[in-house]
Protein: Response regulator transcription factor
Organism: Actinomadura keratinilytica
Amino acid sequence: MSAPIRVLVCDDQALIRTGFVTIIDAQPDMEIVGECEDGRTAVDLARSLHPDVVVMDVRMPVLDGIEATRLLAGVGVEQPVKVLVVTTFNLDEYVYEALRAGASGFLLKDAPPAQLLHGIRTVATGAALLAPEVTRQLVGKYAARIRPAEATPDDVALTPRELEVLRLIANGLSNSEIAATLVISQETVKTYVSRILTKLDLRDRVQAVVYAYRRGLVT
């Protein structure tokens, strides 16, 4: 048997934090290594406990989830930690900044338990997770901020097919949905995604989504 996924939960609302801990700790392939209520403690615990995934709230005292994520997974961090941001999207105006800070993905707090568990497992494998409904809301709510007026796709070093795949990723489609849309195999989609990330020097699908929005590749 493989080792269980070690999870640190950080949320300043005790009821939500306890709920997450209860759900996660009940899974045979997961274990809770710690919990806390502010971002500063999350950073300290993550550095000492070395969890596989940190489930991170955005709005917290002492240090918010964005800054905590940047310290744990941002540019220049030698041993980045995988961070899954779980947030009430309609209230948090800084989810986009959390992604830029290095989060591996985010979910809504009202997502069913199965989706939370799937998110943790996905992020733990090194993949990125963006809930499609959240991605689509991100376009509408943050389009002006994400997409600079001067951005153009002319100098993007991707083939037309790769650009097409990138746009579909940015619209929240999974590999299987992209495969169905383009009538190609999922393995081919994976190859395109890998090429896109390599060419653009991006870490994961989350960064690809942010890149696409900033460069005006999504309408």
